[in-house]
Amino acid sequence: MTRLLALSGSLRAASTNTALLTTLAELAPTGVEVVQHGIGDLPLYNSDLTGPALAPVERLKAAITAADGVLIAVPEYNYGIPGPLKNAIDWASRPAYASPFAGKPVAILGASAGGSGAVRAQGQLKQVLLGMGSQVFAWPEVAVTFAGQKITDGVVTDETTRGFLERFVVAFAAWAPAVPNPLG
Predict the structure, then answer these.
(1) What is the model's pLDDT at position 184?
(2) Can you give the CATH number for the domain in which 129 is found?
(3) What are phi and psi of 52, to 5 degrees?
(4) Checking DSSP bridges between strand 2-8 and strand 135-136, what pairing results, if any?
(5) pTM, to two decimals
(6) Is the pLDDT of residue 37 over 80?
(7) Domain range spanning residue 36?
(8) Would strands 32-36 and 105-111 be described as parallel, antiparallel, or unpaired?
């Protein structure tokens, strides 16, 4: 069984990016499990924190470690990565170069209400992940534009988009377990 961890960069209940991840779980091939993990309970990054405040951080790091690959759906806020997602990545990036993201296969996708498909945030996220030593999935890329016309009640309803998402999850699920970890 290939296990893919899905992280949404949006905390909204009606998030179109979370809907992408839900749809990927529906479309995943046999033998592939897509499991969503929330990031809304993480404290703001502060390396001085200790104790119970770090329990959500440890759960996130354990989930990343246990996964064969990570899917991140990123919305774009003010031309960039939303704060909650960057906060989650900052927590999971420690210790530097030996974090759960080091060598981990990661695929990025995004949806937007307009015509950008969150491509600027996706580009920034790629840069951050590569800086942590993650193995970033190069193709196919997913940038869902005008998401409100393609997603209804948390489900991708547009058949063309669903077909593309299916090709994406099949390709990533085949690639992720085969990627050697150059960091050990």
Answers:
(1) 62
(2) 3.40.50.360
(3) -60, -30
(4) unpaired
(5) 0.95
(6) yes
(7) 2-178
(8) unpaired
